[in-house]
From TrEMBL:
Entry keywords, A to Z: Ligase
Segments forming domain AMP-dependent synthetase/ligase: 11-324
The family this protein is said to belong to: Belongs to the ATP-dependent AMP-binding enzyme family.
InterPro entries the record matches: AMP-dep_synth/lig_dom, ANL_N_sf
Protein name: Acyl-CoA synthetase (AMP-forming)/AMP-acid ligase II
Molecular-function GO term, any one: medium-chain fatty acid-CoA ligase activity
Gene3D superfamilies named in the record: N-terminal domain of ligase-like
GO biological process: fatty acid metabolic process
Length: 464
């Protein structure tokens, strides 16, 4: 075992246990555990030939994406995982925020390029015959983006130890084996996909089937004959509607947002084990798990959870992030006392399960798994021409903006045009899907904040 080389040791051990076992399949392409380990090491050796510390990766999920991500970390460089479908300007801002020096992208055939996508001289020459991996450099960190109360995309820094600890923790309560095919339809820039769709299956000798994109999700379950399926609530809704669950499916794991009970019941009616999981990027996606018919979540081994006096859930363990990138002040608050302050609220049941009563009130969790900062979104919309005030809420799975115009004669068509322009700049993740124009001031609480309950009751619930 090599000290501080957690991903390297993880892959080496898997290759020793199941050398010829199929590790990953992508469409018609498949590789063994030994081949995966060898490819990752070769990529790491290649990456060590170049100066610089931070590399961004973006592109559709694929075997090459996986090798580039793991190889970069094993080389000792930090990897920044970015959503491939973001508008170019948004992506450029994230690269700058994370101090990215290099990029690996499908557009350039994953040949190392500078931050402006210009291919580095000789980077296409990846023959590393005769060279050895320098394990003394240790491993790099993994940076992913999440929303906070005051920021759309805040980079959280995870270590390779965090990821391996999370995979081992999931193993304590959730099983899969060498005969399982774990289909990963979620883009791997998300921690839920990295943990449940890559690291956890590889820890068990299972085969990771890389999804061919959202447009193929209902075909991929049948194409790969998946036995385990980690999905978001939005995917659960779609697959239920189109009967997209194949007969070989044994386990469905729903994460990233609360899943409506009717979709979970539909899974169980098929004889499938249906689970919901609780986690956050800051905890490497790992806190607890519950069957669809159970109350609350059973904590994974190694997860230490306590409840603060005000009911906030506090989490400790080896899977807790190193911190937020370039923000020591916010990090110190989030990790005060050596535990992660989730800003979710809950309690323990009589049998020791963790019941989640309220999620972070500063965020909107969409069924797609995206998190939206309420404060930032409302502020940006209120700054648009002609808008005096606005409140953004999720209702009936739609991100809805209730708008108060400056000029009471302005109609909905004007604001639809404004919102369409806003959506085009922000991208699909934060798309405002519905608007309501109010000629009256929005209800507020005594502290001046919007009273969301009254707003929903007045403008949305009454129209159901």
């Amino acid at each position: 075992m090599n000290k501080d080389c957690f991903i390297y040791n993880f892959l080496e051990e898997a290759a020793a246990k199941w050398p010829e076992k199929r590790a990953i399949i992508y469409d018609t392409f498949e590789v063994s555990y030994k081949q995966l380990f060898d490819d990752v090491v070769r990529k790491a050796i290649h990456m060590q030939r170049f100066q610089g510390q931070r590399v961004a990766i973006y592109g559709p999920s694929s075997y090459r994406w996986i090798v580039n991500m793991l190889g970069t970390v094993v080389s000792g460089k930090d990897v920044v995982l970015v959503d491939f479908f973001l508008p170019a300007q948004v992506r450029k801002g994230l690269l700058a925020k994370a101090s990215v020096e290099f990029i690996l992208t499908s557009t350039n055939q994953y040949i190392l390029a500078d931050k402006d996508a210009r291919i580095i001289k000789n980077a296409e020459k990846d023959n590393v015959e005769g060279l050895k991996l320098d394990l003394k450099r240790g491993e790099g960190n993994i940076l992913m983006f999440t929303a906070t109360g005051g920021e759309y995309d805040k980079a959280a820094v995870l270590t390779s130890e965090n990821l391996v600890a999370a995979a081992n923790a999931v193993n304590s309560k959730l099983t899969c084996g060498t005969k399982d095919v774990v289909l990963t339809p979620i883009s791997m820039h998300r921690i839920f996909a990295v943990l449940y769709g890559l690291m956890w299956p590889l820890a068990n000798g299972a085969c990771v089937a890389v999804g061919r994109g959202l447009r193929h999700i209902d075909a991929d379950t049948y194409y790969y004959n998946a036995t385990v399926l980690p999905i978001t609530p939005a995917m659960a809704r779609y697959l239920t509607r189109v009967n997209g669950y194949n007969k070989e499916l044994k386990k469905i794991i729903v994460g990233e947002a609360k899943c409506p009970k009717k979709y979970l019941e539909s899974m169980m009616a098929r004889g499938v084990e249906a689970y919901t999981v609780y986690g956050a990027l800051e905890t490497s996606g790992c806190i607890g798990i519950g069957r669809a018919d159970e109350d609350g979540f059973e904590l994974y081994d190694g997860v230490n959870a306590t409840i603060a006096e005000d009911g906030e859930i506090l989490i400790g363990g080896d899977m807790i992030m190193a911190g937020y990138e370039t923000d020591p002040e916010y990090t110190s608050k989030a990790l005060d006392g050596g535990v992660y302050h989730t800003k979710d609220y809950g309690e323990f049941t009589a049998d020791g399960r963790l019941r989640l009563n309220k999620t972070n009130p500063d965020l909107i969790q969409l069924a797609t798994g995206e998190k939206i900062s309420k404060r930032v979104t409302c502020k940006q919309l209120s700054e648009l021409n002609g808008i005096a005030d606005t409140c953004v809420v999720k209702y009936a799975d739609l991100l809805t903006a209730i708008i108060v115009p400056v000029d009471k004669s302005d109609n909905e068509a004007k604001f639809r045009h404004l919102i369409d322009k806003y959506n085009a700049k922000k991208g699909y993740r934060w798309e405002i899907q519905k608007i309501i124009v109010s000629q009256e001031a929005l209800p507020t609480k005594e502290n001046g904040e919007h009273d969301e309950a009254k707003i929903i009751d007045k403008y949305l619930a009454c129209n159901q």
